[in-house]
Specification:
The protein is an all-alpha fold. It has helices at 3-13, 34-45, 55-58, 75-78, 88-116, 118-142, 145-174, 179-208, 216-237, 274-294, 297-305, 322-357, 359-376; strands at 388-390, 397-399. It has one domain (17-244, 274-399): Up-down Bundle (Growth Hormone, Chain: A). It contains 13 helices and two strands, in the order αααααααααααααββ. It is globular and about 70 Å long. The termini are far apart.
């Protein structure tokens, strides 16, 4: 051991396990070891996109085979009822809380993250996200919707925010030569979390399902434990570069770019600029389009296409037996995973492309393509003769009813989602 290493070890001895100074990388550290740690966290919190697989089972948590409906139920009474099953619309508010709290917590605690370091933020994220899911499991057991809102929605949403921004901040520091790609690597795991989580959740629910339980609360607990292990592992895998570090052989470009301002705007003053609100509006509209569909992807596919998914085009959702509903639930979980797969690809593709053609041109390209696909996607009566085919947009598996089935309005299933770097959500 060299004298420099001895001094470094002595300095670390007085630091806490989660302190920022402890995770400063030593000379020779391979920066490509950081992306797997970021993915470990983002793949876990990305299951927020797959929560739609729980909506239909939770809507029958009392009736088990059929929902115990109460016509007089309101949203306020649904929060505390123990005798009526929840409606899918009541459960969907959890999804809304996810992303409201994600954005809010990222904005509020972003500065703290830079001071405390990504490891501490990652551990707090793991505790909030997994602890929130366990609290939601207690809400299912006691049939208290408000507890699910608080656990998964509020506490879990805070975990989402901290878990989302910690890899982005860290990877940008390690890849100043490829900032777009670094952001894409950080956020593609979030888009891909449902690809693993949705099928896993469906498998666990089928495993734990009994005559007296739909298997959701058991699934929540198992997934919370699994996610906690991986998120803690990811948090402890974080390293940050020492001050002044640069990739070997790379120097910042000397040429000035019209895309880079020479003026400095402090974070506390950013909201006073028109550019901030224009970007905020673009991202808000961009994100809302995708989340609105992803949040209901599983129940939408099951209830709209019903028997068509298993070769019974004339059979509606209500006429399916338990085995058939289990089959289409598995298909719907796969559909949620498929959305997630193209979410991954879109995030990484657009973010990496922005390094080549610039951020503004990438926004033009992604927004224009999304607009074209949204106009093209609505299903016509002529398409109703097809049973199942892959969309040319490569964003989803389209399963439609037979021509003899009465036509009904179908939502266009495509959108773009963007966070920190341009990206797409195949939904």
């Amino acid at each position: 051991m060299t004298a420099a290493e001895t001094r470094t070890d002595e300095a670390l001895a007085g630091l806490g396990l989660l302190d920022r100074e402890r995770i400063v990388a030593r000379p020779g550290f391979n920066r490509w070891l950081v992306p797997p740690a970021a993915l470990a966290i983002h793949l876990c919190i990305g299951m927020a996109y797959g929560f739609s697989v729980f909506w239909l089972p939770l809507s029958k948590s009392l009736g088990i085979t059929a929902s115990t409906a109460c016509p007089e139920l309101t949203l306020a009474s649904a929060l505390f009822t123990t005798t009526c099953d929840w409606r899918v619309a009541d459960l969907g508010w959890i999804y809304t809380l996810f992303f409201v709290l994600l954005g809010s917590s990222a904005a509020i605690w972003g500065g703290w993250l830079e001071r405390a370091g990504p490891r501490k933020a990652g551990v707090v994220s793991a505790c909030c996200w997994c602890g929130g899911i366990i609290l939601a499991a207690i809400g299912v057991i006691t049939h208290q919707l408000w507890l699910m809102w608080l656990g998964a929605g509020v506490i879990g949403g805070i975990g989402l925010g901290l878990g989302y921004i910690s890899p982005v901040s860290t990877l940008i520091k390690w890849f100043p030569d490829r900032r777009g790609m670094a952001t894409g690597m950080a956020i593609m795991g979030f888009g891909g979390g449902a690809m693993i989580g949705a099928p896993l959740a469906n498998l666990l629910m089928n495993t734990f399902k009994t005559d007296s339980s739909v298997g959701v609360w058991q699934t929540f607990i198992v997934m919370a434990v699994i996610y906690f292990v991986f998120m803690i592992g990811g948090a402890f895998g974080y390293r940050i570069p020492p001050a002044g570090w640069r990739p070997e052989g790379w120097t910042p470009p000397a040429a000035k770019s019209t895309m880079i301002t020479t003026k400095h705007v402090h974070l506390r003053d950013a909201h006073r600029t028109k550019q901030f609100w224009l970007i905020w509006a673009v991202l808000c509209l961009n994100v809302s389009a995708g989340i609105g569909v992803i949040g209901m992807a599983s129940p939408m596919l099951q209830e709209i296409f019903a028997g068509s998914l298993i070769g019974l085009p004339d059979v509606g959702f209500a006429q399916l037996d338990a085995g058939q509903k289990a089959s289409i639930a598995t298909i719907a979980a796969g559909f949620a995973g498929l959305l997630s797969l193209f979410n991954i690809g879109g995030r990484f593709f657009w973010a990496s492309l922005s390094d080549k053609i610039g951020r503004k041109n990438t926004y033009y390209a992604s927004s224009s393509s999304a607009s074209c696909f949204m106009r093209w996607r609505p299903l016509s009566q002529a398409w109703a003769t097809r049973r199942c085919s892959f969309s040319p947009s490569a964003s989803s598996c389209r399963c439609t009813a037979a021509a003899s089935r009465p036509s009904r309005p179908i939502l266009p299933i495509f959108s773009v989602r963007s966070s920190s770097a341009p990206s797409t959500a195949g939904c």
